Structures are given as C-alpha cells and as structure tokens.
Amino acid sequence: MLGVNSFSQSLFPHWNKNLGGTQADVPICFEQLPDSGYIILASSSSNIGFDKSENNRDTSLASSDYWLIRLDAQGNKIWDKTYGGFSSDVPSALLVLKDGFLLGGTSTSGIGAEKMDSLRGVSDFWVVRTDFSGNQMWDRTVGGLLADQLTCMALTSDNYFVLGGWTLSGVGADKSSASFGDFDFWWVKLDSVGTFVLEKTLGGILGDNCFAMCPNDNDGVMMTGYSNSPISFTKSQASQGSYDYWVLEVDSIGRKIWDKTIGGAADDYAFSISKFPGPNAGYLVGGFSFSGISGNKTDFNRGQNDYWLARINTTGTIIWDKTFGGNLEDEMARVMITRQNQILMSGTSYSAITGEKSELNLGAEQCWLVLCDTLGNKILDKTFFTTGHDEYAQVISDFNGCYTGILYTVSDTGGYRTYYNNGGGDIWVSKLCGTPSGIDDVNNTSENFWLNYNAGSSMLSISADGLIGKQYSLQIFNSNGALRFEESGTIMGNTLSRNLHVSHFSSGMYLVKLQTEKGNYSKKFVKL
Q1: Tens of pLDDT along 15-24?
Q2: Which candidate among 159, 205, 330, 487 keeps its CA 20 to 30 Å from the CA of 84?
Q3: What sign for the dihedral angle of Cα 496, 499, 505, 508?
C-alpha cells in the first residue's frame, strides 16, 4: 500500500471538472460526503445555462444566490439547486448533517422566492435547511438594524446550531445585546428546527471580525477571526501589532470562557479553526501573517505574507507555531486534520520556488496545498496548475488519501485544467492522488479532440482519438449557455468522428463538450 511519503512527495492529477453558468460562479464551501461524493456551496449570479439548472432570483443578474451542487465520487454533477430572494444572498458556510444540509450566509433580500422572512436591517444572517436532495425544509433570518454578516456555523454536541459572524448592529430587531466597538463577533443560537434561542455580542472597542468556528466538547464552540482592539469589554489581552488572531471559547449560552490574542508586530488574520483529534488535544488556528519574529510568532516572514499555523491547548496556550510561504503573497484559507492524522493547509499563492514553496506557478495566483505532520513539520506541498489567476481556493483530504481542490477561475485549458471557461468565471474541481491514475489524466487534454468548421457548407466536423470505453455524450452550447445540440452513442474502436450541419445555428461563439469514460473534452468554435 503506497502512503503519502512513498512516491517522493508527488501528487498526480486524476480528474478535473468545470462547473458554471453564464455569469460568475464562486465556490465558497466544499465537503466530501459519506458516499465519497461531494457537496459544493457557491455564490452564483448566473441564469440557466451550462451546469446551472435554475435562474437567478434577481432578474437583473446584479446580485447572487446560494447555489448548492451535488457531485458523485468522480466529480460528475448529480443535481444543483438555487436559493435566494430578489436581492443579494451571499453564502459563506455549510454544515453536512445526518439527513441533509444547513446553508448559511448573508442576505439583503426581503420576502420572496426561497426567502420566507423579512429583512431586519442593512444585511442579515440567513440560513436554509435542506434534505439530502437539496429540497428546502425551512429558512431563518436573524439580524439587527444595521449590517450583520454570517461567516461560519457549527453543530454543537447537544445538537443546536450556532451561527457566527460580525455585526455593526446595536440593540434592535433580533439583537438584544449592545454593540461594543466598530465590528463585533456575533454569536447566535438556533434549535434543530431553526427557532431562535439566544444571541450574544463579543468584542472590544475597535474592530473584531469573526471568520471561523468549530464545536468544543462541552456544548459550546471555539470562535476565531482577527481583532485590533486593546483590552476592553470581552477582550482581555492587548494587541500584539495592528490586527491579531483572536480566539475565544464560548459556552452553550454565549458566555466567554476565555479569550486569547495571538500575533506578531504586523498584521495577522485568522480564517480557520479545527479541533485536534483526541480528548483535550486542543485546536489548530490558521490564517496568514505579515509579521516577522515578534510577539507570539517564532519564525521569520518569508515574503509579503505567509501561511501561519498555531496549535493551542484547550485553554488557548500556544503549543507551537509554524510559518510556511514563499517570496510573495501566500494566504491560507483552511486548515484541517486528515484521516491519516496529518495537517492539511490550503489557500492561494503568488510565490515562486522559495521558502516552503517547491513549484513555480503556471498562472499568476494558484491554489497551494501544504501537508504537515502533527508537530507542524512539512511533508509536502503542491500547486494546482492552471494558466489563470485563481481565487477562493481550498483543498480537502478524501477518504482514500487523495486531495481534492476547488477554486474560482477565469482561465481556459492549460496546466491540470482541461476545460474552457463557461461564463464570467467558473468553479474548478481537481483531484490529485499519490499514485498516477490508471488512465493518464495528465495527458488527457483537448489535444486528442479536434473541431473543423467549414463556413461555406456550415459543416462542423468533430473528431477524437485515443478514447477508452464504449459510450460518449456530445453537447453544444451557445454563448448564453443554452443547449443547442445533444446526443449520446457508442464509440466504435477508440475513435469518434461526427459531421454536423449547423446552418440553423445563429452567428456567434459555441462550446462543444465531449464526455467519455476516459474524460471530458471541450473546444470552442465561431459560427459565421
């Protein structure tokens, strides 16, 4: 059995998938399901087209909706669902439950479409409960009279939902606790059917922004984000620099048990927290840092900003901290413990081969994975190659020890990516494993797929070779994402050749997609 270290710290592409509509579609949350499939929660401004089966609830397409996408274990879409009101609904958090999903985010919508409750202020927390097929069961709006933004959620050990984020609101609407400073952490508790139970405000006199939480062992939660507040109100420690990591343990009724400020002399921003496995094992807090050796930071800065990881015990004392980065910008978005009991960090990087970064980017900004042991010693790092500028990247560890990354890109084919972009920016999912795939996905590009359009005869010739398997599916979409042609059939030998009359197609750009058992291919042509 090959382990992660037995192949000279290499990861190989196995498959990649593109998901998107006609506008911008941005992945926010990504999890693997017990059947080895995946669930994606994205922000979408697209109407029906390409991979999106429902229209944007805002007919002007000026704002976004929640977009939930269910994939099988090979990354093929099983279904998708859209949820929103008639204004802006931006998702930020997802919980996988025993019998469905809880979707969370921020809404400026009033009653309409999937939103069943009124707007409280400028923006509110909005959660949607669904079954495993994505059917809405209930939704809940919680807000004060000003701006409130949901960023994270947790299911506690006593089966309550805790919502977290930041608030500018004082007392009013659903908020009975006063504001402390600029931005405050906001803790909101719902029961299992979405009934509002309790809320609490936590913060100092300046800016306190909550971005992540996880359950503890005592019916409460751990919360983290960043703060520039001095000692004041619920903040008990002085700032180390400007912004620092701020970590709190909060009990089942929203009372602070303890808080810790963790940082160096410059800015440090926490975006992820994960419980270390085992009783009383503590937590991992991750984000990125501009600080050198100073305060709680024990390692030098590699470039402009680096991944910064701190392991803390159950009372917030730092056990160790580690820095990972190259010569430019490296921004960690997520940290998790893998099933192999290793630490997986992911985000994006601009850096060249320097510091802990061992590969040169193909595009400007790329998804970057760093894997460590439980003491924070680096095992490997890997870049997910595209030719573009990629954002909103994160990587999860699969049940089988592979790594599946997801990101937002406007790039076309190149690197590990074998798809053209559908609209204003798409979701790209790519799976890497420690052994090469039985099918050579590295070479599975559109080089085996050809189009020839004859304007005189309006004939489109489509051909592909080196195919494996018996079945194929062929689709042609126009530039608005509408399906104009579709067929499926049997491959004779290992080649496919089709001649299609497209005289009835309007002038414009078209995307041809071929799906086979070997993989997916796509190319564009212009109908004159």
Answers
A1: 999 999 999 9
A2: 159
A3: positive
